[in-house]
Design a protein that fits this description.
Elongation Factor Tu (Ef-tu), domain 3; alpha+beta; 17 strands; 3 domains; 307 residues
Length: 307
């Protein structure tokens, strides 16, 4: 994430949290972070000649204790609370160093999908940053997909952020970040734009993660003793697939198939019902190779899933 921020020439603010912990080592954390910044900036500078290395290292530092709700630009002692009694220094630093969004009043609607979420009542939510124009509830807009096609969709719900909660809104102005419902298959990087004069924004490419995990039912002797616990394979699968709808790179596939279509790893298995989430690449370790070695699936084995 930090590498992408440097590539995009975005400002960096260093926040040292939990300064009140007994084992806090504030100077060491700041020093290690500066070393990380210098190493990443040197790598990024080879790809982005416009990157100013001096400005990258000249970052503001805020010392905070999130639990206590305090922040300060003055360094406290190790294990001590920041001098200020609220988070105002943190907010002031953000306002000072992060530029305000820019937009064109004459431009048509352009809203970029930057993230996904899910609601048990509304289904998939697309988190949008409105670059230009105004987005309204119940508005008919053009959905510009990654394959270049356009589809007319309706914004059934528009949710603005107020504090830590989402509240219903009638319209959203440029520069705001908003959640919209009503588009079940929308993905990160796509654009909602004007219906009559569509102008899609460049697609955002999401990197494939490099981990995978197996999700299965609890086989411990105490399994099922807690009231309301999800103990059956069907419930595990339902919950996992629902949660993955808000995670763009996640994929699910049955482990009793010959190969995982996402990572091309052999995944057939005779083990009992469970699922696995494959984040894009199979491990190359010998143990993983043995674990995912091809086996002929049996008719009696229950589907196991990898995503």
């Amino acid at each position: 994430m930090l590498r992408k921020a440097l590539n995009a020439n975005l400002p960096v603010i260093l926040v040292v949290n939990k300064t009140d912990r007994p084992d806090a080592r504030i100077d060491g954390v700041v020093s290690d972070t500066m070393d990380l910044l210098l190493g990443l900036a040197s790598d990024v500078a080879e790809e982005n000649p416009d990157l100013d290395l001096d400005s990258v290292l000249d970052v503001p530092v805020v010392y905070a204790s999130g639990k206590a709700g305090r922040a300060s630009t003055e360094q406290p002692e190790d294990g001590g609370l920041p001098a200020n009694e609220d988070l105002e220094p943190l907010f002031s630093t953000i306002l000072e160093h992060v530029p305000a969004p820019t937009y064109d009043n004459e431009e048509v609607l352009q809203a970029h999908v930057t993230n996904l979420d899910a609601s048990p009542f509304l289904g998939r939510l697309a988190l949008l940053r409105v670059r230009n124009g105004t987005l309204k509830k119940n508005q008919q807009v053009a959905w510009a997909r990654k394959d270049g096609t356009h589809k007319t969709v309706k914004i059934t719900e528009l949710l603005a952020t107020k504090g830590l909660e989402r509240v219903s809104a009638e319209s959203i102005s440029p520069g705001e970040i908003v959640a919209v419902a009503g588009i079940s298959d929308i993905m990160i990087g796509e654009t909602l734009t004007d219906l009559e004069n569509p102008k899609p924004l460049p697609n955002i490419v999401v990197d494939d993660p490099a981990i995978s995990m197996t999700i299965g039912i609890n086989t411990a002797p105490t399994a099922g003793r807690v009231k309301g616990a999800k103990v059956t394979a069907r419930q595990v699968r339902t919950g996992s697939t629902r949660n993955s709808s808000a995670t763009c790179p996640s994929r699910f596939c049955p482990l009793n198939a010959l190969t995982c279509g996402r990572c091309r790893a052999a995944v057939s298995s005779p083990w009992p019902s469970s699922w696995s989430r494959c984040a894009g690449r199979a491990s190359s370790s010998p143990s993983a190779s043995r674990r995912w070695s091809p086996r002929r699936s049996t008719g009696s084995s229950t589907s196991r899933w990898r995503t």
